[in-house]
Structure formats: C-alpha cells, structure tokens
Amino acid sequence: MKKHIAIAVTAAALLAAGVGVYLGSSTTSAPASTFVLLDGSKTSTEALKGKVTLVNFWATSCTTCVAEMPHIASTYEKYRSRGYDTLAVAMSYDPPAYVVNFTQSRQLPFKVAIDNTGVVAKSWGDVQLTPTSYLVNKRGEIVKTYVGQPDFDELHKLIEKLLAEA
C-alpha cells in the first residue's frame, strides 16, 4: 500500500510539474552560474545575455537525452546565425570520459559543460530529472522550462518569437 501511495505522489508531482511547464509562468532571471566547458574554459550565466539560449541538463545514461540530442543540435544549427545558442550541461554523476566521448562521437556543435560538483544543477532549481531544459531570453530570463523532451515545433516557434524581440 505504501508503495502505491509513493507512486501516486510521485506521479502527481510529475504531473503538476508538467502542467506548470505547459501553462508557462512569469519570467525569472537565470541563476548566476559558472559553467566549466569540456576544454577547461569557463562561461557564465552573464555571458548568455544578448542571445536566446537553451540550457539543457542531460546525461549520457539518459535514453531520452540521447534521443533528443540530434534535435537539439539541428535546432542550434537552424538558429545560431540569428543569435541563438545552446549549452548542454552534463550531470555530476555522468563520468567525464563518457561525456567527452559522446560529444566527440556525435560531433555536438554547441558548448558542453560538466557539472562535476552538482552546484550548477542545484542553482537551476535542484535539477534531478533529465533531460531538463531552460529557454533563456536575451535579457537572461528563463521564459520556458521543459522537463523531458520538448515539442520541437513549439520550441522553434518560441525561439523565433524571442529572437524577434529587441
């Protein structure tokens, strides 16, 4: 019985999160973060300003993450010349060698960071489910959160709208 209650509570929480994502919410500033990229360089939330950016938390062990990655890459390629960027943040439990291998073998065209301490995921709302993505506008505000694979047609429409904003 306790197991069924736990499953029901978990399902209700996920449903509530999904409904919140679907309905959207007011914009909030992206949390101040420093991202360590695979080449050892760093970037920050501040550096996202001026571009529309998808910040994607993922793991090589996540089948949905692996399945969505070609769509994320093609979205990046489609809009990057217009001021769109992507930052893929590998979760702390993902072995760095796996992340490097995945990034190189799939020839990911965007920046990839490793959150080896978990601090970045914690600051972005204690991300634990992958994939979780945040669409950030040119002002550095989160305008949409996706838990699970986004509807890419809808995502593209929103990116176009945000790119058109001053």
Automatic annotation (TrEMBL):
One Pfam family cited in the UniProt record for this chain: Redoxin
CDD domains: TlpA_like_family (cd02966)
Highest taxon of the lineage: Bacteria
Annotated signal peptide: 1-32
Keyword tags: Signal
Thioredoxin domain sequence ranges: 24-164
Record-linked Gene3D superfamilies: Glutaredoxin
Protein name: TlpA disulfide reductase family protein
Lineage: Bacteria, Pseudomonadati, Pseudomonadota, Betaproteobacteria, Burkholderiales
